[in-house]
Specification:
single chain; Cytochrome p450; 45% helix; 18 helices; alpha+beta
């Protein structure tokens, strides 16, 4: 980025470093940084050692406007997630100059983006998801039964809600849609956690290695690709009505999609398709455990469940950041930006913007309106948003009528990641009717 001068909008070093620190997204420091930025430098330049400078976009209105202007702010010109200069160099070396290890929808711009999105878009439309509701409800009932099985003779139940319920229910839903055997779900979960938790000291594949000593590793993506390559070959030979068959046999402009693009499609559906829903579900349970008045409110009035779902998505905002690249010199929100400049869209900041949300740092199950940005906006609006909302709605419809008491039973913890994160531990104590 070459726009920086002594006179421009440089973010203080201590604040900028928080934006790039995975641990800050787990311990709450990121929200303190966001509050300061929205008030003092809502569109400023962050300079972090070992990372190319970038504009940090922290206000709701600016994130919305950038998301609308897809030709001016590209996804695919540079990495759409924050990476170090060294990691970027290694990826480009491995991928023949491309900054991408994968080529998913989040790595694409027009005209490719819409063509690839349309391959599966119909699967995720509300009218088509209705046929899955009964199947999903069976899975939700099983998840609630699993939780109820933790209730002891004294009538009190104890569990880690993340590990017992939140991780497995959305995983089962998306894997059944894809056609992945239930026996392979632990493998899919482990790979997902290693991918999104690559900076987390507990979830990373090299979890025992100090962060400073960790080396760039493609192993997780290779393992995912090897698994889905076998699935793809099987579905080409023996197609069924699952999503894996659709991807395996897809064509763009009359030609089969490449191996890279097929594997990328499988991987994004198999990871984002459950991890973000797991995080929002666990985030809701955490907030309800800390706010018994809100739990009582939604138990008394189940019509608030859709509102609870939206508030938990806003509150947790599992996808914390995406990067965009400026395609031509421009002036935006009073800032002069140059072609090639990198921007960080800080969704979790936009979702607590005081100019949009009343009392933004508190969890309200009846929040309306709730114009959160957790699913993105514009052309890159999350493909699976309707499925995620339906899964969560159904789970709460099954669980809340039976949940009579709820409290934390230990110290919860968030995963460490500046890209996608959420609760990784949530010990709770409860009673069920």
């Amino acid at each position: 980025m070459n726009v920086m001068t002594a006179a421009d909008h440089r973010i203080p070093k201590d604040v900028a470093e928080v934006l790039g620190a995975p641990a800050a997204y787990a311990d709450g420091r990121i929200h303190e940084a966001y509050r300061w930025l929205r008030a003092n430098e809502p569109l400023g330049v962050a300079e972090i050692e070992g990372v190319d400078p970038f504009w940090a976009v922290t206000r709701h209105a600016d994130i919305l406007e950038i998301s609308r202007q897809n030709s001016l702010f590209h996804n695919g010109d540079r990495s759409p997630t924050i990476v170090s200069q060294e990691a970027d160099r290694q990826v480009r070396e491995m991928m023949g100059g491309s900054p991408h290890l994968l080529r998913t929808l989040i790595h694409m711009d027009e005209p490719d983006h819409l063509k690839y999105r349309l391959l599966t878009q119909a699967w995720f439309m509300p009218q088509n998801l209705k046929r899955l509701e009964d199947q999903i409800r069976v899975l939700a009932k099983a998840a609630v039964a699993k939780m109820a099985a933790q209730v002891g003779p004294d009538g009190v139940g104890r569990c880690d809600f993340v590990k017992e319920v939140a991780l497995h229910y959305p995983l089962r839903v998306i894997m059944s849609i894809m056609g992945v055997p239930e026996a392979d779900e632990p493998r899919m979960l482990k790979l997902t956690q290693e991918l999104f938790g690559a900076a987390d000291p507990e979830l990373a594949r090299d979890a025992g290695t100090p962060p400073a000593e960790r080396k760039f590793d493609m192993g997780v993506i290779i393992d995912f690709s090897n698994y889905f390559r076998a699935i793809s070959e099987d579905r080409r030979a023996h197609p069924t009505d699952d999503l894996a068959s659709l991807i395996a046999n897809s064509q763009i402009d009359g030609q089969p999609i490449s191996d890279l693009e097929a594997m990328s499609y499988y991987i994004i559906v198999a990871t984002a398709g459950h991890d973000t829903t797991s995080s929002s579900t666990a985030g809701a349970m955490w907030a309800l455990a800390e706010n018994p008045g809100e739990l009582a409110k939604v138990k008394k009035d189940p019509s608030l469940i859709p509102s609870l779902v939206d508030e938990s998505i806003r509150w947790t905002t599992p996808v914390k950041t995406f990067m965009r690249t400026v395609t031509e010199d421009t002036s935006f929100a009073g800032r002069d930006m140059k072609k090639g400049d990198w921007l960080m869209l800080c969704y979790a900041s936009g979702n607590r913007d005081e100019a949009v949300f009343e009392d933004p740092d508190h969890f309200h199950v009846d929040r309306k309106p709730n114009k959160h940005l957790a699913f993105g906006y514009g052309a890159h609006l999350c493909l699976g948003q309707h499925l995620a909302k339906m899964e969560m709605r159904i789970l709460w419809e099954e669980l809340l009528p039976r949940l009579s008491e709820l409290a934390l039973d230990g110290v919860p913890a968030m995963s460490e990641s500046s890209f996608v994160n959420g609760p990784k531990r949530l010990p709770i104590r409860f009673r069920m009717d």
